[in-house]
Design a protein that fits this description.
The chain has 286 residues and is an alpha/beta fold. The strands form 3 sheets. It has an 8-stranded mixed beta sheet with strand order 3-2-4-5-1-12-13-16. A 6-stranded mixed beta sheet has the order 7-6-8-11-14-15. The longest helix is centred in the C-terminal third of the chain and has 24 residues.
Length: 286
């Protein structure tokens, strides 16, 4: 049985991210009945950012302790053969795919042979649990709405495992250029609805931050939110349908305090801000 957990969250809202990642990871781990779980983080979309890779693997190690063995798959510099990739992926129980640049991620996956191996494992029904956020949740769909070009929406093709389209961060108030709608600057949800109505994207899922779609054998079985009063939608060219969205209110482990991880998230946020400033300063001095 295959499972895909396709998420949307915003790492600029530290406490929401803290709560969401805790609950969604607990949900993912609950799907696997093993004493020790192999967890692999794949950060291709963020150009294999060292900060994000180390943060995620250390977060998971600290949270689940002896129950998990973590690793990272760095595909931007990978020299692994397809056979080596297949052997490695087949040993994993969970692949967590981080967010970032969807278009660049798919290019690197294709070049490295990762796409080919992933498709092979799918065909042979040997996929691990696939979890991912934003770009890391887009790839299974036929097509997606992305703002890979800064400040401009763009329709991208995914791997086509699912016939629908996907729009993460559907409740984002940030506006970007929508050249297929008279060059207006629109919020993401509005841009997605227009793209579906115009036929640029097939019908699909609009997922706000702090929500997750659970596909079992490539069929949607649950829509989950870590926040109350949060809602996912299914968008067609005729109508927008609200999906029943379950509130993940209770930790599966009563001994885990969700707030105990907030300091780590604050450190991640500060590191990201520092890295951005350093990048801008470097560009100015070159």
């Amino acid at each position: 049985m295959s499972h895909m957990l396709l998420m949307s969250f915003d790492d600029s809202h530290i406490m929401n991210l803290n709560r969401t990642l805790n609950r969604f990871l607990e949900y993912a781990f609950s799907l696997i009945e093993k004493a020790t779980i192999q967890f692999c983080y794949i950060g291709t979309a963020s150009n294999d950012s060292l900060i994000e890779r180390k943060f995620f693997t250390r977060f998971v190690s600290s949270k689940f302790r002896k129950k998990v063995i973590t690793s990272e798959l760095v595909l931007t510099k990978s020299q692994l053969t397809k056979e080596q990739l297949e052997s490695y992926l087949a040993q994993q129980d969970i692949l967590f795919i981080g967010g970032g640049n969807t278009e660049k991620m798919l290019e690197i996956w294709e070049k490295s042979g990762f796409t080919s191996v992933l498709n092979k494992l799918k065909t042979e029904k040997r996929l691990p649990v696939l979890a991912g956020v934003s770009a890391g949740g887009m790839y299974p769909f036929y097509s997606v709405l992305s703002d890979v070009m800064p400040g401009q929406y763009k329709a991208l093709l995914g791997l086509g495992w699912l016939k629908e389209s996907f729009c993460p961060h559907a409740n984002s108030k940030k506006k970007s250029l929508c050249d297929y709608s008279k060059n207006q600057y629109l919020e993401r949800m509005e841009a997605y609805v227009i793209a579906v109505k115009q036929g640029l994207l097939p019908s699909g899922y609009a997922v706000p931050n702090d929500c997750m779609l659970h596909f079992e054998n490539f069929n949607l079985v649950k829509t989950i939110s870590s926040l109350q009063n949060n809602q996912c939608y299914y968008v067609t060219h005729e109508k927008v349908f609200a999906l029943e969205t379950i509130y993940a209110a209770v930790s599966s482990n009563p001994n885990i305090r969700l707030e105990c991880w907030s300091r780590g998230f604050k450190y991640l946020h500060h590191f990201k801000q520092w890295a951005k400033k350093l990048h801008l300063w470097t560009k100015r001095t070159i």
